[in-house]
Model the fold of this input.
Amino acid sequence: MKRREYILFIFANFLYFFTFWMVIAYLPLLFHAYGFTDTQIGFVIGLNSLSSIILVFPLGVFSDYFSPKKIVVFGAICYSAYFLLLAVVKDFYFICAVVFLGGLGAASISIILISLYLKLIGENNRGKKVAVMHLGCYLGFGAGPLAGGYLYEIVGPITMFNCAFALSVGLLLLTFFLRDYPPVVFSFKDYKKDMKDPKVLFLIAAVFMLGTHFGVEQSSFSLFIKNNIGLHNTEIGLVFFALGLWMGVLVPFAGKILDRRPAAFLFFALGLFVSSIFQVLTAYTTTFTNLLIIRLIHTFGDMLAILEMDVLTSLFFPAKRLGGNSGILFCVRTSAIFLCAYLSGYLNDIGGYRVSFIVNGIMVLLFSLWALLLIRKGYFNTQKT
Done:
């Protein structure tokens, strides 16, 4: 790939994550102001992920067989419509329909964009190249909520949605300049054969566990730090900005290390281990400072796990079937996000916002310890990069 193409992918990824987190970080607060219950909030936030489960595998297969670029363009159109409709809809059931549409658009962009990138980058230095793509992700994750917090606080959520819509149109225009990948001829049985690999099955389990804590955070994190710690919307934005900047600084170094790792899944398991411990500790934070410290360490674990997830995806699956197989992994992750977002809303109604962080952290911790035990016994030492 040429340098111009790298910049195009990074900027498109940045705009996607910027607009996504600019809005999603404050949707629970807005829905709470609309009078939705915590259970309803958890359901709606989870629906953003659930909608993608229905079509993301067919879209992934379509991108392999016909054109990944066209799928990304289609997703960007749905994604823009989502922000446009959020500015006018307030009824719970209409909100569900709009969020469903947004989830479809977001999935089409995020999963097919990264699979197209993985198809084009070649075989060498995958960790470094994936880290470059993640740079746009983390900067968007940090800057989006910061901008959203100020917009929400100063001019209100409707203006925030309008700004997100304008930026999503810019993202749509960028997708027209992406390079496409040649279509291939294959059988659907090939996907089934890919899934029989024990390493792939373990990757699926690890991706599910990673998704569970995303569900908790998307439905509960903003509500927790606003209601339990008492931060304003602008301070919430500062927390996200610091986390995104922190991961953006570290990810290039992590990518280089990942290219020399001793065994597959090592950094995935270590990332989940660190993330799970500090997910539990998040529940006991009481000030802006200790919250920020705990979450900085937590997101360091997230970064390691997410980075290796994409690298292992590119290693375990043939490039010609990356769209469909990435779609399967995305279905697994989004199923976990929906399930835990909904369960978190239920737990929030019963025991407050701390409980879901504690329960999820313990669950992911047990899985990570099991994964580290398997790695120590040499189950994955045959897979190197």
Observations:
- The chain has one domain: 3-376.
- The radius of gyration is 19 Å.
